[in-house]
Amino acid sequence: MSEENAENGSHNQRLETLAIHAGYSVEQTTKAVAVPIYHTSSYAFDDTQHGADLFDLKVAGNIYTRIMNPTNAVLEERVAALEGGIGALAVASGMAAITYAVQTICEMGDNIVAVSTLYGGIVEPLLKCYSVRLV
User: Fold this and answer.
1) Is 36 left (phi over 0), alpha (psi -120 to 50) or beta?
2) Which of 37, 44, 59, 99 lies most in the core, judged by the most C-beta atoms within 10 Å?
3) Is the whole model's pTM more than 0.70, yes or no?
4) Is the distance from CB of 83 to CB of 2 less than 8 angstroms?
């Protein structure tokens, strides 16, 4: 296990335990042991400054459920714990994951070298959106 897992107390937990419990602490209001599923699309701000600070990433918190929500946060923390990573990102599809990866790694003017046997769903976006040349 990584040092991060040791810091959060999961250094001596087996994968089965991490899969069930990592990333979540019992909610003090309801004492729910299972992760609640939050059915909401938006969150309240304490005031306009709090909202501005959230959008500027100056403070942690929920803004809009498509960006982040508490249920997804637990999933991301569990995946990171299971993989021994420092973080994870849950997205809606494999295409979203590929898009995030390409846009995170690449900068304007970079070249992407790819083989023509890539997953078919990514070939056209790479060719049309990113001007990739397949080899």
Assistant:
1) beta
2) 99
3) no
4) no
Residues 6+ apart with CB under 8 A from 132: 112, 114, 126
pLDDT in tens, 75-128: 998 999 889 899 999 998 888 888 888 888 888 888 777 777 877 777 777 777
**Domain tally for the chain?**
1
Contact 71, 38 (CB under 8 A): yes
Q: Encode 20-43 in three state secondary structure.
A: HHCCCCCCCCCCCCCCCCCCCCEC
Nearest to 58 by CA among 49, 67, 47: 49
Q: How many residues does the chain have?
A: 135
Q: How far apart are CA 85 and CA 117, in angstroms?
A: 29
Distance CA 86, CA 3 (A): 9
Within-domain flag for 104: no
Residue 9: CA atoms inside 13 Å, Cβ hemisphere, count? Answer: 6
